[in-house]
Design a protein that fits this description.
five-stranded antiparallel beta sheet, Ig-like_dom_sf, 19% helix, Interleukin-1 receptor type 2-like, signal, alpha+beta, single chain, Ig-like_fold, four-stranded antiparallel beta sheet, IL18BP-like_dom
């Protein structure tokens, strides 16, 4: 049986660098794990225009933040732009990076209510995600007429 070819020195060096970096990071996962700090609970009425900000932290400069709608990118599920993501913002804070991204609803609809929106932060330690939760609309007291219901309750 012929001997297996030796690894090129570049591959061997890369393997050693990865092995060393993993060993150095071992046991620090709790401090380095990305997390989402926004509560992501909101009350909305049909036809309302509003935005939801997702905010979280990562230890890595290379971390990214984005929204998913039913497990796909927002722009793919909403090619008409009814729901869009604003540009991500990254701010260096002591010991970590703050990531922010807004999800904008141009006119909240029944489709939006039944869509699962997740905020995701992805970094070298893996993903952190949180699902947006819809709360019942807040009651402002007895209806005084003229405003219409516009709430999330079924007709």
């Amino acid at each position: 049986m012929p001997a297996a070819p030796a690894l090129p020195s570049r591959v061997h060096g890369l393997f050693l660098a990865l092995l060393c970096s993993c060993t150095c990071l071992e046991g620090t996962g709790a401090k380095l794990q990305a997390f989402i700090s926004s509560p992501l609970q909101i009350s909305a009425s049909f036809g309302q225009c509003f935005s939801v900000q997702c905010e979280g932290y990562t230890a890595f400069r290379s971390g990214n933040i984005y929204w998913l709608a039913n497990g796909t990118f927002v722009e793919d599920l909403y090619p008409d732009g009814a729901v869009i993501e604003e540009d991500a913002r990254k701010v260096k804070v002591p010991g970590r990076h703050l990531l922010q991204r807004e999800l904008v609803f141009r006119s909240f609809s029944e489709q939006d209510l039944h869509t699962t929106f997740k905020c995701v932060i992805l970094d070298p330690f893996g993903p952190a995600q949180k699902t947006l939760t819809w709360l019942p609309p807040k009651e402002d007291g007895p209806e005084t007429g003229g405003s219409g219901s516009g709430g999330l309750e079924d007709p």
